[in-house]
Description:
The protein is of the alpha/beta class. It contains eleven helices and 13 strands. It has helices at residues 3-6, 14-26, 29-36, 40-54, 75-104, 120-132, 148-153, 217-220, 241-250, 259-264, 294-301, and strands at residues 61-62, 65-66, 108-114, 136-142, 159-164, 174-182, 184-189, 199-201, 209-213, 232-238, 255-258, 270-276, 281-288. The strands form four sheets. A five-stranded mixed beta sheet has the order 4-3-5-13-6, sandwiched between helices. Strand 1 and strand 2 form a beta hairpin. Helix 2 (14-26) crosses helix 3, helix 2 packs across helix 5 (75-104) and helix 3 (29-36) crosses helix 4.
Amino acid sequence: MDERAARPGGELDARSLRYLLAVARERSFTAAAASLQVSQPALSQAIARVENLVGGRLVVRDARGVAREGSPLTPAGQALLADAHRITELLDRALVRARRLAEAGERERLTVGIGTSTPRWVSTRLVEAAQESPELDVVLRHVPWGREVTDLAAGLVDVAFVQLPPGRDPDPRVRAVTVAEVDRVAVFARAHALAGEPSLSIADLDDEPIVDAGSDRDVWLVDPRPSGAAPVVVGPPATTVEEMLAVVATGRAMAITSAAVASAHRSDDIAFVRLRGLEPLRLLLVALADDERPAVADLLASF
């Protein structure tokens, strides 16, 4: 063993890794120190200690400080940075989970991320399963669109439901089970001429103004269209279901959403119509690939 690493203060610590991440992100010792709310000398000394431990430079410096062109880190710094992201993420997740377990007491608690596209029957099934288990609490937490894996990685949820567009693979950081297939539907203001149709094809919508989507635009605008027509997009992009439905209700534009949203947001001023000929989306239940807790495995297996 390296004698320096065995001495007090000779081990790599999480704080130093966070300092290195900040320097790489900000490309400035001053800005990095400000973002961490520490003094610049303290940050510089911490980086110097890690460089001494490594035995070489981690940060590329020029006359003004951190190099402004190219990578701000040396090859050794880049290698350490790749692991630093993962290590600090694991530490943060472990702390969040431990706090949640401390709050729950002796019963194990799993937090399940659900969104506006999660069918209600799924949430009901989870609550019923929790009621039947004397050793497990299941807590439902709303997760915004697109943040499912981010919240998993941060330890904010233990498993999450993700709606996966056709032809896409799950995030490589997770393992997943398919819970259901979810159709897409059109939504119109109640007075719209097409609102009373039993079903529509995407070609029926080629001339209809459609609310822009904040994410997965190819899925929710169906772009490109089979006919080659370009969608008539109405902005600004809707980032939530509520924003999208509010625009639709005014009659300015229609929209395309999932059948799960349709079942949860029925009202007198809008109408949902089934769309024919579109490949369904997959509803997945996902957990981090390295999460080996039996309760997580059992929950995934239950679907």
